[in-house]
Write a structure and sequence with these properties.
It is a single chain. By secondary structure, this protein is of the alpha+beta class. It contains eight helices and ten strands. The strands form three sheets. Strands 2, 5, 8, 9 and 10 form a five-stranded mixed beta sheet that branches.
Length: 312
């Protein structure tokens, strides 16, 4: 029994002595800290800048590759950035390693020593999409590719940045859902409220309306869409209306009346009225084919109108 106790005491003493002398059992503690230099919410296209630092917070000196404190090298050592989307999926960096593996022996990283990277523009290397929030961490990696180097890494705290969605695009998405719901449950006599809601989104609703007009085969629903386009002047509404004036006469629409009546000519006339409202122009059949006149006008004047989502 005494021998067993003596062995346990000797082992404990050896561990304490090793820690005190900086031997293999000495505490190793490398910490990294990241700080976002840009606002937590940015507009699309704005830079995403980060600063970071790494410190040997332990009691033992470490040997690290010469490029441990720099932007990562192709041997997997150095400073790397980990960017994840809301689903936790890592984003691929478009930037190759900044430097090749440095030649030479490992360098000392002493207790209390720290190194910082003042600013790095992550948007040079990563795509930050509108309407998404990203988590960003800095990771300092040491690999034993350099003889005698410590094999380990230190991951910083995560910082988050949200890329705000453009208001026009957000409204366009809302309009797409609204127009789809309205037409899927279409009732001509109860369309007033839905049309007001669509109009409240402004020209952001035009792409959804233009798509709906191309797919619509009901006379009354197509007429409502054409009417709405006339209240939303922009490049895309002009495109959709002129296209309908040129091609709509050859389409067939379900009028609910029966027989051979399709109502296409009524809708073409409605499209002309909407174009007159938008453009302030009025063409006469006495001067030639209306479709040709509006087509010619469109070629000359299309770019005088702003895009539905705003010119960028």
């Amino acid at each position: 029994m005494k021998i067993k106790h003596l062995k346990s005491a000797a082992m404990a003493f050896a561990l304490v002595a090793a820690a005190a002398t900086g031997g293999p059992a000495a505490a190793q503690s490398v910490s990294a800290v990241a700080k976002l230099l840009t606002p937590e919410a940015i507009n699309a296209g704005e830079p995403v800048k980060i600063s970071c630092e790494v410190e040997n917070a332990g009691v033992a000196e470490l040997a690290v590759p010469p490029h441990f404190f720099s932007i990562g090298a192709s041997d997997g050592a150095g400073l790397f950035f980990v960017v994840k989307d809301e689903a936790g999926s890592p984003q691929r960096s478009a930037c190759p390693p900044k430097i090749p593996p440095a030649l030479g022996s490992a360098v000392p990283f002493r207790p209390g020593e720290y190194h910082g990277f003042r600013s790095f523009d992550l948007s040079q290397c990563f795509v930050f999409e509108e309407g998404k929030t990203y988590s960003i961490s800095a990771e300092y990696v040491s690999r034993p590719n350099t003889p005698g180097a410590w094999n380990g890494s230190a991951m910083s705290n995560p910082v988050k940045v949200t890329v705000k969605e453009d208001t026009a695009k957000k409204n366009a998405r809302a309009a797409s859902e609204l127009v789809s719901e309205w037409l899927n449950n279409y009732d001509y006599h109860a369309s007033g409220a839905a049309k007001k809601s669509v109009l409240s989104l402004g020209t952001s609703a035009v792409p959804a309306l233009a798509d709906a007009l191309r797919a619509e085969s009901r006379l009354l629903a197509a007429g409502d869409i054409i009417e709405l386009l006339g209240y939303l002047p922009c490049r895309e509404s002009v495109d959709a209306l002129v296209l309908f004036v040129v091609t709509g006469g050859g389409q067939r629409f379900n009028s609910g009346i029966g027989g051979e009546f399709s109502g296409a000519s009524i809708l073409v006339d409605a499209a002309v009225v909407s174009l007159e409202k938008i453009s302030g122009e009025r063409f006469s059949r006495d001067k030639g084919d209306l479709a040709e006149q509006w087509y010619s006008w469109h070629e000359q004047n299309r770019n005088t109108f702003k895009s539905a989502l705003g010119d960028r």
